[in-house]
Specification:
By secondary structure, this protein is α+β, with helices and mostly antiparallel strands. 26% of the residues lie in helices and 17% in strands. It binds zinc ion.
């Protein structure tokens, strides 16, 4: 490959140098391919698809001097990333835009053979007829060349594709949000509100690097809505976790008082001695022969169970609780009790 940039027209060299700066600013890896091409090199290309295998890539035999490369006024470019030299249309479109901004014309705008990797000096039209009629041959043309005021840098070695390391996930915060090839670069795709993508923590000004499906690009940070890292599910401070042992002790009472929004003394106050025989599994109650309103906690539980709120634990409350816990309703909380155990398990989930 004839990649000698210093064999190109000095003005083309200057423009390539400026293009290299613009590409570097956008992180575009500009590779330089064919530059000046001799007649024998052009003949070899012309043979491809005619007398040699492959697809036809040029209409110009070497002897015709109809390739701009043979006049030193064109060069070919590619994406300088191993394995991805020609698979990124957006890259070619953007480099072409930048090339035009420094006064070059693009083979991608041609119609007969669209040549996306080709940029050229437009001074002599889009072909070589003007050059041929004005100068006759390349040597005469070259005598008119001056010296380049700035020269391109030597094309870098192809770089390996950076592997993507996601540092987080995010969703798009707006509709028709552009994902660009570079900060302010060409539009690769658009995302809508709620579309998910990955980030790798790389930013440039107000731009963040993102990956959506297999496309890596840049999005304005104002539309990057970061996912919150999953928080461990927290229990409210001081929440008592019960051992589901089937015995209703003071911890069980405290936890229920907590659950029902009462002060937590761990005692079921003023329960009827007459009902004690139904409650061997309850060891945190205060039994009394003198009913004076019963327990506030029991009234809360009765409301919760949808039964009359008299404040006393008796067969009616026990049966309702057994029903709620899916146990057989014999009206007795034994020691230990399957119903109490299920109730303790249930309250632990609240
Ligand atoms: Zn070309």
């Amino acid at each position: 490959m004839a990649r000698n940039l210093n064999e190109l027209h000095p003005r083309l060299q200057e423009k390539i140098a400026r293009l290299q700066v613009l590409c570097a600013k956008e992180g575009l890896q500009l590779g330089i391919g064919e530059c000046f091409r001799s007649a024998s090199e052009q003949n070899a290309l012309y043979a491809q698809g005619r007398t040699k295998p492959g697809a036809i890539i040029t209409k110009a035999p070497g002897s015709s001097y109809s390739s701009q490369h043979q006049w030193g006024i064109a060069f070919d470019f590619f994406k300088n990333i191993n394995g991805h030299e020609y698979d990124d249309n957006a890259f070619f479109t953007r480099v072409a835009q930048l090339g035009k901004s420094v006064g070059l014309s693009w083979g991608g705008d041609w119609h007969s053979i669209v040549d996306k990797p080709h940029l050229y000096l437009p001074d002599w039209g889009s072909g070589t007829n003007i050059l041929k009629s004005t100068y006759g041959n390349f040597e005469s043309f070259k005598k008119t060349w001056g010296k380049a005021s700035i020269t391109p840098i030597k094309p870098a070695q192809p770089v390996a594709e950076k592997s993507w390391k996601a540092t987080g996930t995010a969703t798009c915060g707006g509709n028709s949000v552009n994902v660009r090839s570079a900060p302010n670069g060409s539009v690769l795709i658009q995302l809508n509100k709620g579309n998910r993508f990955e980030i790798n923590g790389e930013t440039s000004g107000s731009w963040a690097k993102i990956k959506v499906n297999n496309t890596v690009g840049w999005m304005s940070t104002q539309y990057v809505v970061l996912d919150q890292p999953a928080k461990p599910r927290q229990k409210p401070a001081g929440k008592i976790t019960l051992k589901a042992d089937g015995i209703w002790g003071s911890d069980t009472t405290k936890r229920l008082q907590q659950y029902f929004g009462l002060s937590q003394d761990g005692v079921i106050s003023n329960q009827l001695n007459a009902y004690k025989k139904y409650c061997p599994g309850i060891v945190s109650a205060e039994w009394s022969n003198t009913p004076n309103g019963g327990s506030q906690l029991v009234r809360k539980m009765q409301a919760w169970l949808g039964i009359a709120q008299d404040g006393y634990i008796g067969p009616q409350l026990i049966k309702a609780l057994q029903g709620k816990m899916g146990k057989s309703q014999d009206g007795v909380l034994s020691n230990p009790s399957q119903c109490i155990s299920a109730f303790q398990h249930w309250i632990n989930q609240q």
